[in-house]
UniProtKB/TrEMBL annotation:
This is Ribosome maturation factor RimM. Its main location: cytoplasm. It comes from the Bacteria. Keywords: Chaperone, Cytoplasm, Ribosome biogenesis, rRNA processing. Belongs to the RimM family. The gene is rimM. An accessory protein needed during the final step in the assembly of 30S ribosomal subunit, possibly for assembly of the head region. Essential for efficient processing of 16S rRNA. May be needed both before and after RbfA during the maturation of 16S rRNA. It has affinity for free ribosomal 30S subunits but not for 70S ribosomes. The lineage of its organism: Bacteria, Pseudomonadati, Bacteroidota, Bacteroidia, Bacteroidales. It is found in: Cytoplasm. Binds ribosomal protein uS19. It comes from Prevotella amnii DNF00058. GO terms for cellular component: cytoplasm; ribosome. The keyword Cytoplasm applies. Gene3D superfamilies: PRC-barrel domain (2.30.30.240), RimM (2.40.30.60).
């Protein structure tokens, strides 16, 4: 059984397209394409269910039309509308040459200068020009930290730790 900590969000399913089960797939990570994935995971009633990809075609940089096996009508596709699409971390890490920001969610963030643990990266905020990590500190405080790859010092995928240079004064806010 696939566990939630072994996957990460790469997008969500939009409305059906046509009457044969095809639907919009809005994604923030194209790992499904770069790894030539056979399936994507969708959470249904708290259970991660694999949906095998029959075909897909890109409509823009962040949207594709996707057809899953055994989803053959508009009604079946409509039941999946709004569902979060997840991808196995292990496959992404094995087949990708570099990690995407989405894959870093649930990693522990460490300030490389002070060597102190800042907290856990709980999400990505890409609603502004500058993408930010949403971090929950050990004390439960919520922080926004620039997700600038130039600040990364090291990433340990086996321990799920990222060490980065935290801009001076950021933690004092």
């Amino acid at each position: 059984m696939i566990r939630h900590e072994d996957v990460y969000k790469i997008g969500y399913l939009g409305k059906p397209h046509g009457v044969h089960g095809e639907m919009q797939f809005i994604f923030s990570d194209d790992v499904f394409d770069t790894t030539d994935a056979d399936y994507l995971l969708i959470e249904l009633d708290g259970i991660l269910v694999p949906f095998f990809i029959e075909e897909y075609r890109f409509r823009s940089e962040q949207m594709a039309l996707i057809k899953f096996e055994d989803i053959n009508t508009e009604e079946e596709a409509r039941r999946l509308t709004g569902s979060v699409v997840l991808f196995p971390r292990k496959i992404a890490e094995e087949k990708s040459e570099s990690l995407s920001l989405s894959q870093i969610v649930n990693y522990t963030l460490i300030d490389n200068k002070t060597k102190k643990t800042i907290g856990k990266i709980t999400g990505i905020d890409d609603s502004t020009v500058n993408t930010l990590f949403e971090v929950t500190t050990l004390g439960g405080q919520e922080l926004l930290v620039p997700a600038n790859t130039n600040l990364f010092e090291s990433i340990d995928t086996s321990k799920k730790i990222i060490k980065m240079v935290i801009p001076e004064g950021l933690l004092d806010l």
